[in-house]
């Protein structure tokens, strides 16, 4: 007696919207025979989504519609019944519309859009909303429809000019058709409501309409007639813009046209009174006639003009009295380095300036050139800081007057240094055939200075700062070199088992960019006495020098010339002493002004090995005047320690300065 389901049951197919949905049947029972009637109620489940008739809906709503207006929307359908049927609608968030859900008599739901805030097409031309239909199932099923709202324009905006007043200036002889001004107005409405037409205002005088023409479509105001400054100096033109709506909006503006005077009227001379006849004995200054001159033109066009001719009474004036220019050495020839600027308030040729380079120094004309017309100074050659650091010159600026007037401008060019020179070794001399060996005694303690590498760098400043490092050594543990002094020290105490001969290679580097370097080779002998070193040196055969005879003759010539000069100076001194005794008073009065002492000296430090110590040094100072001379004799230099010697070369003030340096050639003792 079990009742079974033979196929899938679809309530919506069997009963549709009818509720409740039931199926009736009869059952026959035998033994005894009986007839029973029964019914099966088909209960609904939420197996259907709400459905809108279309996925999109389009509405056209005028922007003039007042708030509170209602707009019915198409309803969604849900075949389910009861709580599973369509229960409500929802609307996406927006500032203008709200959703009102209503219930029909049969219980179905429908929705209406309610306008809460008035639309403005000029602010937003269209709106996009989403309407959602929801049933009462758990979870609820839903459907969506896109609502596109077109905001229909209403003529609610009048045209607006981009400015209320336009101004223009026109010469009185301006030809017809010349553009005076272009007015522009805009209307936020759409279609005919936004089309703008330009015209003269109703109260515009007929005279203005005769002189000016207005394009109704473009708003261009042009000259139509002949303007006359003497008749009217200013025109005030009122214009308007209208749209093409049913009730057109209107905007107004004005154009102020100033007529500019043109010198189109000749002066008129009127004789107001004449005193005639004039007596022959009339005094100078007697009034003969009164004249009046008038000109209808205005301002300068109405004056009687008296021209004043220019006189060359102003010299050129430079913006600067002097220029300091800095140029990197090794420059490219032909580059401009300066533009000398000058002005002249005169007129015509009197203000025509030319620039000339005054060649105070002969080399200036070969190195620099100036453009005579614009004052641009050029470098003709490449400069070398080591050759010359500074150039001074004068630039003459001259006008074209008669006679011409000129101004001189001082120009100083400073050559800045580049690191283009590697360090040069002075000692030991790298290009000599003689062998210099420095001596250090056995057992010398650590820190004992043996010798010194002397080098110079032709560059300047940081580029000439030399550092010394030990690149290679026979015994690297025995010697060290001062980083900035070049002094070679013993790094440890010398031992008996140390080899007697050492060769050091010193690397010299400057601090320029890029870094340049050179090297020096130093020979050091470990010996008790200098004699031991000499024994080793005798094995070295001197190289044959083909120029030794020439050197001999040159030395002989120098000695002879020096001796003759010394005798001459001695004779002059004796003669002056004799004259001094005769005119002691004259000598005393002029002593303070004629005698010169040597000025500041520049020196080069040269350290040598112990083979050639200086022995004597004489200086003779002579003044530019022959009244007096001094002879200064200095004692022989004392020996410097560690086999090094120092000599000084000095340059004196202008005048005559002579020095004699001689060497005895003997070797120093080990103690020295």
Would you write up a description of this structure?
The chain has 672 residues and is mainly beta. Among the domains are: 11-41, no CATH class; 56-152, Immunoglobulin-like (Sandwich); 160-260, Sandwich (Immunoglobulin-like); 317-416, Immunoglobulin-like (Sandwich); 424-526, Immunoglobulin-like (Sandwich). Helix content is 10%, strand content 38%. It has 6 helices and 43 strands. The strands form 15 sheets. A 4-stranded mixed β-sheet has the order 3-9-8-5, with no helix packed on it. Strands 11-18-17-14 form a 4-stranded mixed β-sheet, with no helix packed on it. The protein has a 4-stranded mixed β-sheet with strand order 22-29-28-25, with no helix packed on it. A hairpin with a 4-residue loop joins strand 1 (21-29) and strand 2. The protein is flat, with a radius of gyration of 58 Å. Mean pLDDT is 81; it is low at 530-543 and 586-672. This is PCDGK protein. The chain crosses the membrane at residues 552-575. Its main location: membrane. It comes from Uria aalge.
Secondary-structure map:
Blueprint: H1 11-15, E1 21-29, E2 34-42, E3 56-62, E4 70-72, E5 86-91, E6 97-103, E7 109-115, E8 126-135, E9 142-152, E10 160-161, E11 165-171, E12 179-182, E13 185-186, E14 196-200, H2 206-211, E15 212-214, E16 220-223, E17 234-243, E18 250-260, E19 268-274, E20 289-294, E21 317-318, E22 322-328, E23 336-339, E24 342-343, E25 354-358, H3 364-367, E26 368-370, E27 376-379, E28 390-398, E29 406-416, E30 424-427, E31 437-440, E32 449-452, E33 454-456, E34 467-473, E35 479-481, E36 487-490, E37 501-509, E38 517-526, H4 530-537, H5 548-582, H6 584-594, E39 606-608, E40 614-622, E41 629-634, E42 645-647, E43 656-663
Parallel strand pairs: 3-9, 11-18, 22-29, 31-38
Antiparallel strand pairs: 1-2, 4-7, 5-8, 6-7, 8-9, 10-13, 12-16, 14-17, 15-16, 17-18, 19-20, 21-24, 23-27, 25-28, 26-27, 28-29, 30-33, 32-36, 34-37, 35-36, 37-38, 39-42, 40-41, 40-43
């Amino acid at each position: 007696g079990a009742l079974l389901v033979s196929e899938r049951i679809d309530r919506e197919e069997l009963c549709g919207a009818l509720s409740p949905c039931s199926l009736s049947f009869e059952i026959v029972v035998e033994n005894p025979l009986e007839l029973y009637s029964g019914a099966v109620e088909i209960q609904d489940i939420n197996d259907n989504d709400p459905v809108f008739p279309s996925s999109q809906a389009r509405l056209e709503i005028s922007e003039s519609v007042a708030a509170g207006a209602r707009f019915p929307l198409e309803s969604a359908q849900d075949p389910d019944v009861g709580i599973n049927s369509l229960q409500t609608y929802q609307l996406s968030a927006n500032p203008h519309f709200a959703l009102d859900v209503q219930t029909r008599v049969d219980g179905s739901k429908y929705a209406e859009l309610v306008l809460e805030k008035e639309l403005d097409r000029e602010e937003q031309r269209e709106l996009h909303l989403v309407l959602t239909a929801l049933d009462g199932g758990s979870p609820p099923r839903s459907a969506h429809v896109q609502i596109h709202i077109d905001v229909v324009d209403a003529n609610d905006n009048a045209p607006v000019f981009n400015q209320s007043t336009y101004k223009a200036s026109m010469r009185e002889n301006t030809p017809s058709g010349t553009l005076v001004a272009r007015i522009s107005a805009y209307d936020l409405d759409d279609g005919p409501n936004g089309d703008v037409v330009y015209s003269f205002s109703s109260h515009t005088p007929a005279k203005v309409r005769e002189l000016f023409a207005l394009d109704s479509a473009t708003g261009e105001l042009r000259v139509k007639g002949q303007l006359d400054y003497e008749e009217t100096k200013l025109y005030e033109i009122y214009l308007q813009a209208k749209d093409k709506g049913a009730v057109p909006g209107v905007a107004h503006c004005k154009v102020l046209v100033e007529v500019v005077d043109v010198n189109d009227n000749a002066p008129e001379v009127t004789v107001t009174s004449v005193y005639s006849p004039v007596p022959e004995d009339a005094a100078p200054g007697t009034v003969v006639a009164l004249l009046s001159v008038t000109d209808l033109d205005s301002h300068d066009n109405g004056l009687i003009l008296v021209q004043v001719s220019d006189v060359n009474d102003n010299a050129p004036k430079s913006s600067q009295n002097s220029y300091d220019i800095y140029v990197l050495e090794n420059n490219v020839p032909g580059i401009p380095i300066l533009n000398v600027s000058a002005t002249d308030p005169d007129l015509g040729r009197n203000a025509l300036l030319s620039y000339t380079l005054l060649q105070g120094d002969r080399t200036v004309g070969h190195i620099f050139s100036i453009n005579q017309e614009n004052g641009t100074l050029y470098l003709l050659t490449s400069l070398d800081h080591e050759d010359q650091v500074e150039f001074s010159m004068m630039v003459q600026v001259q006008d074209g007057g008669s006679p011409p007037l000129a101004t001189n401008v001082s120009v100083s060019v400073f050559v800045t240094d580049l690191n283009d020179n590697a360090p040069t070794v002075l000692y030991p001399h790298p290009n000599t055939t003689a062998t210099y060996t420095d001596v250090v005694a056995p057992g010398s303690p650590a820190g004992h200075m043996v010798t010194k590498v002397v080098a110079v760098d032709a560059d300047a400043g940081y580029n000439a700062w030399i550092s010394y490092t030990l690149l290679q050594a026979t015994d690297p543990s025995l010697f060290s070199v001062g980083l900035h002094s070049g002094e070679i020290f013993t790094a440890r105490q010398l031992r008996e088992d140390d080899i007697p001969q050492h060769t050091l290679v010193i690397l010299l580097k400057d601090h320029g960019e890029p870094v340049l370097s050179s090297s020096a080779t130093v020979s050091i002998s470990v010996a008790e006495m200098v004699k031991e070193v000499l024994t080793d040196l005798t094995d070295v055969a001197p190289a044959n020098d083909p120029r030794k005879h020439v050197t001999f003759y040159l030395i002989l010539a120098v000695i002879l010339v020096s001796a003759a000069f010394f005798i001459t100076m001695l004779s002059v001194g004796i003669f002056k002493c004799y004259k001094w005794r005769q005119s002691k008073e004259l000598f005393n009065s002029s002593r303070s002004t004629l005698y010169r002492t040597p000025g500041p000296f520049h020196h080069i430090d040269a350290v040598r090995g112990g083979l050639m110590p200086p022995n004597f040094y004489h200086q003779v100072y002579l003044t530019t005047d022959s009244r007096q001379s001094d002879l200064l004799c200095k004692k022989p230099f004392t020996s410097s320690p560690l086999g090094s010697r120092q000599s000084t070369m000095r340059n004196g003030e202008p005048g005559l300065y002579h020095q004699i340096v001689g060497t005895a050639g003997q070797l120093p003792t080990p103690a020295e």
